UniProtKB/TrEMBL annotation:
Alphabetized SUPFAM superfamilies for the sequence: Ypt/Rab-GAP domain of gyp1p
Identification of the protein by name: TBC25 protein
InterPro entries to which the protein is assigned, alphabetical: Rab-GAP-TBC_dom (IPR000195), Rab-GAP_TBC_sf (IPR035969)
Organism (species): Loxia curvirostra (Red crossbill)
One GO-annotated biological process of the protein: regulation of autophagosome maturation
Pfam family, one: RabGAP-TBC
Domain Rab-GAP TBC as annotated: residue spans: 90-219
GO molecular function: GTPase activator activity
PANTHER family: TBC1 DOMAIN FAMILY MEMBER 25 (PTHR22957:SF333), TBC1 DOMAIN FAMILY MEMBER GTPASE-ACTIVATING PROTEIN (PTHR22957)
GO CC terms in record: autophagosome
ATP-binding is among the record's keywords: no
Gene: Tbc1d25
Keywords: GTPase activation
Length: 219
């Protein structure tokens, strides 16, 4: 392009545009200079240090780790440290049944080991009464509608897992999943049952192997 001889009309257009281009470049230069001056650190002001790197992943929570967070009588003394450990490292599979109840706030703060067992027995009895009362109080049409919506998901949730595998008829684990989700829906009529709740409740039931405790954790 530089070697080509422009025609007169094109030369006149370039000549007319040159002052505008020079003015635009000058304005850009002034704006850039102001931005650089505004962003420059004042003399003697230290730069802000970068945030510290996140802690490296740790090993999954073990039984010895869990005991280190407990005090006399089995009271949980360091709940925040326990949560951070699980967040960064997870939990050994054999401890999930115990630790998930801490993480999901099933226990009031400060309970001893014996008090936690008593609390679970009390809540299990309350759940049994609640399940019967809600089913009796609900209108037949409402109960049938909720049960059908829950059943549609229950029969296809984690059926490849050994805990939920096998024939549908008379399956105790499918019946427990159906019962806890139906009880939750009847007890929370404004929310009721939503598709996908079974995917949350099924792992809880499979790990805890207890309908009442899975209901507490799900809530």
């Amino acid at each position: 392009v530089a070697a080509a001889e422009p025609v007169p009309e094109r030369r006149s257009l370039l000549a007319a545009a040159l002052p505008f281009t020079q003015a635009l470049l000058a304005q850009v230069g002034r704006t850039l200079a102001r931005a650089q001056a505004a962003l420059a650190w004042p003399e003697g002001t230290p730069a802000v240090s970068p945030p510290p790197p996140p802690p490296p992943p740790c090993a999954p929570l073990s039984d010895a780790d869990l005991r280190s967070y407990l005090g006399p009588g089995g009271r949980l003394l360091r709940p925040q440290d326990l949560r951070l450990h699980v967040f960064h490292g997870g939990v050994e599979p054999g401890l999930r049944k115990v630790v998930w109840r801490y993480l999901l706030n099933v226990f009031p703060a400060g309970l001893t080991g014996q008090e936690r067992l008593s609390h679970l027995r009390l809540k299990a009895a309350e759940y049994s009464s609640l399940k019967v009362a809600l089913a009796a109080r609900a209108a037949p049409a409402e109960l049938a509608q909720v049960a059908a919506a829950v059943r549609k998901d229950v029969v296809r949730t984690d059926r490849a897992h050994p805990y939920f595998g096998g024939p549908e008829e008379g399956h105790p684990h499918l019946a427990a999943l159906q019962a806890l989700l139906t009880t939750f829906a009847l007890g929370h009529p404004r929310l009721s049952y939503c598709q996908g709740m079974s995917d949350v409740a099924a792992p809880l039931l499979a790990v805890l192997d207890d309908e009442a405790q899975a209901f507490l954790c799900f809530c």
